[in-house]
Amino acid sequence: MASQSKNKKIWLVTVDMGYGHQRATYPLKHLAYRGLISANNYQGIPSKDRKVWHEQRKFYEAVCRFKKVPLVGNLAFEVFDLFQRIPEFYPKRDLSGKSIQVISSFRLIKEKSLGEHLINLLKKRPQYPLLTSFFLTAFMAEIFNYPGEIYCIICDADISRAWVSALPKNSKIKYFAPCQRVVERLKLYGVAEDRIFLTGFPLPKENIGSERLPVLKQDLKNRLVNLDPQRLYLSKYKDTLCKNLSIKNFPKKANHPLTITFAVGGAGAQREIGAQIIKGLSQVIIKKQIRINLIAGVHRDVNKYFKEQIQKLKLQSHLNKEIRILFTQSKMEYFQKFNEWLRTTDILWTKPSELSFYSGLGLPIVMSPPIGSQEDFNRKYLINLGAGLDQEDLKYVDEWLFDWINSGRLAEAAAQGFLEAPKLGTFNIEKILTKRTIKTRGVKTISPY
Questions:
Q1: Tens digit of pLDDT for each residue in 272-286?
Q2: How many other C-beta atoms are found inside a 10 Å radius of the C-beta of residue 329?
Q3: What's the confidence (pLDDT) of residue 438?
């Protein structure tokens, strides 16, 4: 299998908009011919294409930032969100009709010839499958007649009609679904069963190790010790946990301090929550009882904001010790460092974005408020798994957070994510791209567990 994956090459196409679409392709970069290609920011992109993408990105980021404006901000975002809203699943019905967003996407591509230059470049190696993490780039490949296979990674636990072609029955786009609900949703949107693959979301191999999960298990045994200091949950479910982690006993002490990682979204939204966490936990920070990772990503302004807040709280002496800020110049460096920091993270605090699927790494998710319809469904996914909890009043974070820890509630959430959420998405996608698939009940699937 290793040699097959090494020899197999694909066109790996994403978009540089937020983090989600690039995070989904990052674990598969080793398969990419000529590396990861950003459809809106590749070498040689026509200026007209760059302009269209720039306008799309700036509009989305502006709406996300405007949401913070009292009263009118929420109203404006709700109007915007109507165009990407996910319809109720029940009653099951034919949802294959074109949505406004699909019509707009096709019109944009055809009228502006958006992406034609890129697809013509990719046609020079038509034998390579084209794998993308964004519906617009999948549509481009189809509209401009890419002759090879076209695959699309779904980045959320449920999706709007925007992800599926205007004429789904005639489309050649194949989908990698992160969970069963997405499989069922795609069928309602008219996608043929033989073009749907249940794989799980692609998680970073450096946090897993292999299909036997050696790295994940090593990290989780230490994490559970930090998350259940009274051993209330660990004692109750010791046999089950030890069996699944391939260990005889839990270590007496973790290999790292109790650590929270707070991740800001790709548009830089919710940075204020990071500041409130630092403020609320300042006393345990001073006592060196906790470590806080603030993830600024590639946002210079967020990095500056975090440093200003730390200074305002007179916690400068704890910077780079009990408080760390992750800021990088490039997204590829950010993903690499972020995945490294996750190995010694006990609690991942973030909005329910594509990071919801990182619950499969045995990371309990403390959820900040969702932004947009798809994040509402990601939140529901985490709650149903038992792997995510809504943040409570940040003024009292030092109380409720430690109640969750001392009761073993967060240890339970970590274990639930590990036991129930898909973990092998990256390996499963590799198998499909190398033609090693299993067919079950008309839907080509590989078990995500």
A1: 999 999 999 999 999
A2: 9
A3: 44
Token duo for residue 221:
């045994």
Q: Residue 18 in 3-state DSSP?
A: coil
Distance CA 89, CA 221 (A): 37
Cα gap 342→59, rounded to integer Å: 31
Residue range(s) occupied by CATH 3.40.50.2000 in the chain:
206-420
What's the mean pLDDT in 139-158? 98
CA separation for the pair 112, 266 (Å, rounded): 27
The whole-angstrom separation of Cα 321 and Cα 318 is 5
Residue 120 near residue 46, CB atoms below 8 Å: no
What is the third-level CATH fold of 206-420? Rossmann fold (3.40.50)
Do the beta carbons of residue 95 and residue 160 sit within 8 Å? no
Q: Is the pLDDT of residue 2 over 50?
A: no
List the structure tokens of 18: 């937020």
**pLDDT tens profile 90-135:** 999 999 999 999 999 999 999 999 999 999 999 999 999 999 999 9
Pairing of strands 10-14, 32-38: parallel
User: 273 and 295 in contact (C-beta within 8 Å)?
Assistant: no
Say if strands 347-350 and 388-390 run parallel, antiparallel, or are unpaired.
unpaired
Average pLDDT, the chain: 91
Asked if the 2-203+425-445 domain carries CATH number 1.10.1660, the reply is no
List own/partner pairs for 38-41 with CB under 8 A and 24 or more apart: 38/13, 38/14, 39/13, 39/14, 39/15, 39/115, 39/118, 39/132, 39/134, 39/136, 39/137, 39/140, 40/15, 40/16, 41/16
Who has greater pLDDT, 80 or 424? 424
Question: In the chain, how long is the greatest CA-to-CA distance?
Answer: 64
Q: What's the gap between Cα 368 and its chain centre? A: 15
What is the rounded CA–CA span in Å between residue 235 and residue 217?
18
Provide the 10 A C-beta neighbour count for residue 181.
18
Scanning the structure block, which residue is given the tokens 């996407």?
A: 105
Mean pLDDT calculated for residue range 369-398: 96
Three-state SS at 348: strand
Residue-wise pLDDT tens digits, 337-377: 999 999 999 999 999 999 999 999 999 999 999 988 899 99
CA-based end-to-end distance of the chain: 19
The closest alpha carbon to 142, from 132, 153, 155, belongs to 132
Calculate ∠ Cα 206-10-121, nearest 5°. 130
- How far apart are alpha carbons 123 and 415 in whole angstroms? 45
Is 340 in contact with 363 (CB distance < 8 Å)?
A: no
